[in-house]
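Example 4.3 (complexes with small molecules)
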Amino acid sequence: MRFNNTKTAFSLKSNIELRRAYFLFKLISYPILVRLGKYIINLSIKLRLPIKKIIRMTVFDQFCAGVNTKDSMKVVNLLGSKNVKSYLHYSVEAANTEKDYDDCLSSTLDTLEVSKGSSFLPFSVFKPTGYGSSKLFEKRANNSQLTDDESLAWKRIIKRFEITFDKAKSMGISVFVDAEESWIQPAIDQIVEQMMIKYNKNRPVVFHTLQMYRKGRLNYLKELNEKSLQHKFIVGIKLVRGAYMEMERSRAISKNYPSPICDTKNDTDLQYDQAISFMFDNIDRFSMFLGSHNEASARKAIEMAKKAKIPNNHPNISFGQLYGMSDNITFELADLGYRVVKYLPYGPVKEVIPYLIRRANENTSVAGQTNRELNLILEELDRRKTS
Ligand SMILES: Cc1cc2nc3c(=O)[nH]c(=O)nc-3n(C[C@H](O)[C@H](O)[C@H](O)COP(=O)(O)OP(=O)(O)OC[C@H]3O[C@@H](n4cnc5c(N)ncnc54)[C@H](O)[C@@H]3O)c2cc1C
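Answer. The structure with flavin-adenine dinucleotide bound is encoded below.
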């Protein structure tokens, strides 16, 4: 499978949308323009210049589904018409107060509520630090003694997790718990394991996220397998490579501890593929969502599934990409009957700017990915001209 069927990949995009995407990917392939763009956007916001419309028509529409859930349903239904499911995330970042955490819980519950009327939304998601303070997660991760106030705050975090999963369970939906930095992740691991034992008896309501750029995560996956045998639950796994490599490495240097990140990209890739292989060998106990834009990984997963005689539409295997990226993988897999789910961020234009800046940064740092997007768009525009 070469993931180069541009007709399938871009069947939902008009010529104008393709040209806009080309323009954007071209811009973000130049780090200096990304830096300049960030500066101009931040300055314009400070000076209250009317830039929302320009952002909405360009980078927002490329990478976000809408400003609210109602708006986003147009994209959800469009993708659904091509056998691509979605999950919505209110992508407003930086929660710091108890009110922010409660608001974040409400937005997750809203996305679950929207899923009620649509078979195109089988998943929802939240970031643990949207539900509570990073400092508190870090203290828990270090087994530090909590003050009375912190113990109460911790109980409120657990409650927010439970409210989310109770609702998801009653609605037949699954929820991804995003993975975060290694110094808070042990606390997240602990809660998610407890929640999987509680909620995943009959079906995977709770999905843990494993970052395979971290040394030792394959062993952790094997430990989860043992725990699932012991406690009789289904392990839900969102498998990713990991998003915070630079931060992890520089913190390890500045605090003088060994980097938790694999030494090479090849080591990360190997762990990623080995994790898939391990889950395929235990497919009755694992429900997996392979979140990646790496064509080679998707290809390998398909080959492994074929070898193991696992059907394309096996309910325990889904693939996922971010909205606005790698449509060649998404739509080709969906066309072949695989379960594919797009991550759809939404929110007020001004509020999702940090998310959009991260998208620009990530695309700039993965040069191969951006060139691939550019070439595919050009191929499709050429194909349309000649056909
Ligand atoms: C649907 C979806 C959900 C996601 N959810 C999360 C999440 O909850 N938490 C999270 O952290 N990330 C998440 N991500 C982001 C993900 O972890 C990756 O950062 C991103 O997808 C790029 O990896 P890739 O497999 O797509 O592509 P690739 O280009 O194959 O891989 C790039 C990744 O490889 C790793 N890498 C690169 N260079 C090196 C090196 N020198 N040494 C070791 N490793 C290296 C890094 O993880 C880098 O991000 C998600 C991604 C998707 C698509």
